[in-house]
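In response to the reviewer comment on reproducibility (Comment 2.3), we provide here a single inverse folding case reported in full, input and output, so that an independent group could reproduce the run without further information from us. The structure tokens appear first.
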């Protein structure tokens, strides 16, 4: 069943809590029971093929040895790891893990010094790295195409391993992530401003490409929209957002993805960060439609309130889970005949109102709470109600290539046959295809 979304309304579902390691085996995701290492979390994964997958973890709290696991196509097993001690307070710069095969695995850790550990199929050895100047708090990131084609970036430096020695190069900006699609298609992303131990300096997104001869800074979209926050003098603050890319994945010369954060000063919270996504199509970088102002918890910064049905609300096993985890950290209005006996956990961003007097009342209250932002409507039954009531401006239908075999039919309801939809756009993001419609009245 397609997952419909709309801009007043929209449709989505409560996102389930993260699960342990999951492995795809052709027909979808399934849970892999790999053992019980209490107090340890897996934080990095690398795969060279379906029978060669590696996962690296460390203690969730405190300091301890790293845990390395290997999947051979049949089962996960604990594997000898290099003697690297890691503390949970350093998770922001967790070691980078890459592999090109069962006999070529690398772990790069940026502690007091940048260290490279290599597995050759029999033992771990530390490969000496040239001195690279970097500041505390900067994270090393690596990518590998072959045993003689390995890259690691940290700060404003990149180092390349040709199978015999390292070559260090200066980058045109500060990098925190690197990915390679081919020897002449290596991408590094980060920011134009130098990262600081206590945060990030003024910065815009930086994307850099190795073309086989040199590193070049490739223009990326900027956001210099002045802040409208009111300062202590009662005037608009006017500060410019800080943009920093944190991850890049290169699939080919015309298909590269990057995600990052957009940070603005907030007089109430100190700062406010949202997640951004960019895409390289072979000629230019661009914002990904519909994802450019998604908060660190997944919330669209243009969304001011959510209206959902009781069935959608009950999809979360624990209603207290919504605060800090749900994709929309905004006021939520739940249409129901019977409010819960205990009000779920709330905070200054996400509040619950259980509406018992109809969808028109819920939409009216949500519009007030949204303060001129978008109202998202979730749930098949509620979407049918707002469509019939003429309360919809746009309808977004997101289709994933999954056949559920059950569920509510979104448009199987009397009174919808006379609604006219005008297609305004089609967007493909990974496996998802989103079709957007404007409602004609």
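Designed residues, in position order:
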């Amino acid at each position: 069943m397609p997952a419909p979304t709309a801009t007043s309304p929209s449709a989505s579902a409560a996102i389930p809590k993260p699960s342990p390691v999951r492995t795809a085996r052709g027909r979808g995701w399934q849970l892999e029971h790999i053992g019980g290492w209490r107090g340890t979390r897996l934080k990095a994964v690398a795969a060279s093929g379906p029978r060669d997958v590696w996962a690296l973890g460390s203690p969730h709290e405190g300091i301890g040895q790293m845990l390395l696991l290997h999947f051979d196509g049949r089962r996960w097993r604990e594997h000898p790891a290099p003697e690297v001690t890691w503390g949970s307070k350093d998770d922001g710069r967790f070691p980078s893990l890459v592999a090109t095969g069962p006999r070529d695995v690398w772990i790069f850790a940026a502690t007091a010094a940048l260290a490279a550990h290599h597995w050759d199929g029999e033992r771990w050895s530390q490969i000496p790295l040239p001195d690279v100047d970097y500041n505390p708090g900067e994270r090393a990131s690596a990518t590998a195409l072959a045993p003689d084609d390995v890259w690691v970036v940290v700060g404003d430096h990149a180092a390349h391993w040709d199978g015999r020695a390292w070559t260090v190069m200066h980058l045109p900006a500060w990098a925190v992530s690197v990915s390679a699609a081919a020897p002449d298609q290596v991408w590094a992303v980060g920011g134009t401003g130098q990262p600081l131990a206590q945060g990030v300096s003024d910065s815009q997104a930086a994307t850099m490409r190795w073309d086989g001869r040199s590193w070049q800074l490739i223009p990326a979209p900027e956001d210099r929209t002045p802040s409208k926050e009111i300062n202590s003098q009662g005037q608009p603050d006017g500060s410019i957002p800080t943009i920093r890319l944190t991850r890049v994945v290169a699939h080919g010369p015309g298909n590269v993805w990057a995600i990052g954060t957009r940070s603005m000063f907030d007089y109430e919270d100190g700062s406010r960060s949202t997640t951004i996504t960019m895409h390289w199509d072979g000629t230019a970088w661009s914002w990904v439609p519909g994802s450019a102002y998604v908060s660190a918890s997944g919330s669209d910064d243009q969304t001011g309130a959510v209206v959902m049905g009781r069935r959608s609300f009950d999809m979360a096993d624990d209603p207290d889970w919504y605060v800090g985890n749900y994709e929309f950290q905004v006021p939520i209005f739940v249409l129901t005949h019977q409010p819960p006996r205990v009000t779920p956990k709330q905070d200054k961003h996400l509040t619950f109102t259980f509406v018992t007097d109809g969808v028109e009342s819920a939409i009216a209250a949500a519009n007030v709470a949204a303060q001129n932002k978008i109202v998202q409507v979730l749930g098949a039954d509620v979407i049918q109600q707002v469509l019939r009531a003429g309360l919809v401006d746009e309808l977004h239908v997101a289709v994933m290539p999954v056949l559920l075999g059950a569920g509510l039919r979104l448009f199987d309801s009397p009174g919808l046959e006379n609604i006219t939809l005008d297609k305004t756009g089609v967007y493909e993001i990974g496996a998802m295809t989103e079709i957007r419609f404007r409602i004609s009245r």
